[in-house]
Automatic annotation (TrEMBL):
It comes from Microbulbifer donghaiensis. It comes from the Bacteria. GO terms for cellular component: cytoplasm; ribose phosphate diphosphokinase complex. Residues 5-115 form the Ribose-phosphate pyrophosphokinase N-terminal domain. The lineage of its organism: Bacteria, Pseudomonadati, Pseudomonadota, Gammaproteobacteria, Cellvibrionales. This is Ribose-phosphate pyrophosphokinase.
Amino acid sequence: MMPLLFSLDLTLPLFQPLCDGLPAEAGDLEYRHFPDGESYLRVGSEVIGRNCIVLADLSRADSQFLPLQFLAATLRELGARSVGLVAPYLCYMRQDRRFHTGEALTSRLFARWISQEMDWMITVDPHLHRYHSLAEIYSIPTRVLAGAPALAEWLSRRGEACLLVGPDAESRQWVEGIAAKSGLPFIVGRKERRGDRDVTVKLPDITNEQAALHSALIVDDVISSGHTILQTISELKSAGFSAIDCMSVHGIFAGDARQQLLNAGLRNLIVSNSIPGQSPAIDLSPLLLEPIHEMLASAHT
Ligand SMILES: O=P(O)(O)OC[C@H]1O[C@H](OP(=O)(O)OP(=O)(O)O)[C@H](O)[C@@H]1O
């Protein structure tokens, strides 16, 4: 029997491609709020003995997490055979240690709560910095997919020579992967973060050959406040680059970050459809289909 695909938001750009591609039956879910703001959920589909997949946008997790947990727990109570989570963007990964005494280790707490309600989880390029794998904090089977091949494919379709630029050491993995596929040169900068919106990015010396390209493409995993990219744009402008683009797997764009980046002279802002509402150029659904099948198969064994 086909799996059931549920989401609290049926307008998520990945919902229909996953329904069609898996294929999966769209789960019938009523989700609304009571006048006091509390969530009301009612599952209309018969879920007994069925594999259920929940597609979730976690880019605004503080309002999205509780209804997600209500949904997963309800599917389980109603007799679902398994409940798996597809969270293309995985939130709460940046507080991966106590930087100051007494801080909440939110990455670990979030992972514990998700692991209590879900049987498995698939995500794309989670911010793994001081953790080496999700298994350090998630106790359920997880699968991490790399967005870089999809980014590289977009780049090869565009066919414009450019210098690939990673703003910080963490971005090296994506920039290097894309450079290997495209044969384009790359550099990686050094970032110092002093606060949420207080970062400095310093790029290494740029060779004459690299500068002669005039076109640069900044590659990063996630854009939040946009300050990492703003700093990188400023460095590239000082080095004489006239066409600056930015490509990121996850475009969160907190506040007016998107507009600030465009005002700073960014030519194109290329993001995937992991998060709704950003005119995505890169479709992640082809990446997700096979891993979801594999998770469903292993949930049976
Ligand atoms: O748009 P912004 O608000 O600048 O945030 C996005 C940046 O933050 C993350 O790294 P972070 O600076 O958290 O570094 P980390 O690898 O030390 O966690 C991420 O890799 C981006 O580079």
